[in-house]
Amino acid sequence: MPSRTAIAEGSTPSDFKIMYQAIVDIFPLSLAVVPWGILCGSLAITVGLTPLQAQLMSLLIFAGAAQLAALTMMGAVGSLSSMFSSTFVISSRHLLYSAVFREHVRKSSLGLRCSIAFFLTDEMFAVTCAYMAKHKKFSAVYALSSGITFYVFWNVATFTGIVAGQHIPNLEHLGLEFAIAATFIAIVIPTIKNRSTLISVISSGVSAIVLSIFMKEYALIAATFIGMFCGYLTKEKSVINE
After folding, report:
1. Which of 47, 97, 95 is nearest to 68 (CA)?
2. What is the radius of gyration, based on Cα positions, of the chain?
3. 194: which DSSP letter?
4. What is the pTM (predicted TM-score) of this model?
5. Would you list the DSSP string of 87-152?
6. Predicted confidence (pLDDT) per residue in 93-127, tens digit
C-alpha cells in the first residue's frame, strides 16, 4: 500500500484544512458505499475465499465494481481470461480519470503519482474535480486525503461483510447491490449543471442499457465514449450558436 508520508511530509496548517475539507466532502459517498463493501466481503466468503484472502483483495486491489465482477465470475467458475477481460473493461474508465489528472501531477515524484493512482476511484475523482472547479487548481493533498478516507471506509465495510458472511446466510440476496447504483447517482446528479452534461448523461445511460443487450462485456466503455461524444457535440454546437 502506498505510504501516507506523501501527505504528512511538509504539511502546513493550510494543508490540514484541505485534508479536513476532503474528508468532509468524501464522507457522504463513503457512507453510501458501505453496503457495497459489505456485499463484496460476504460474497468473497461465499465463493470460497478465506477471510484473509477476502480482506487482502480489498486492501491490495481496491477496485469495487471490478472486485464484485471477479467474485461473481469466480462463483460461476468462469475462466481466468474472461475474468481478466471483464475486470479490465470495467476498470478502463480509470484511463479517462487519470488523463484528467495527468497534467497536474506529471512533474510530481513517482511516489506521489503512484499513490494518487492507487487511491483513484470514481468517488475520489468526483470530489477532487469539484474541488478543482471551485478553487481553480489541483490539490494532491485533497486528492490523497479523500482517497485514503474512502479506502478506510471500503476496507472496514469489507471486513464487516466478511464477518457477517460467516454468520448470516444469503447476505448477498438482501439487495445491498443497490448501493452501487445509489453511489453513482449521488456522484452524477450534482455534476449536471448545463445542457451538454445532461445530454451526455442521458445518452450514455440509454446507450449502456441498449448495448448491454448485444455486447454485455463492452457496453460500459462503449456507452462512456458515446456519452462523451454527444456531450462534446452539444457543447460545440452551443459555442457556435453563441
Report:
1. 47
2. 19
3. S
4. 0.73
5. HHHHHTHHHHHHHHHHHHHTTS-HHHHHHHHHH--HHHHHHHHHHHHHHSS--HHHHHHHHHHHHH
6. 788 888 889 889 988 899 999 999 999 998 999 99
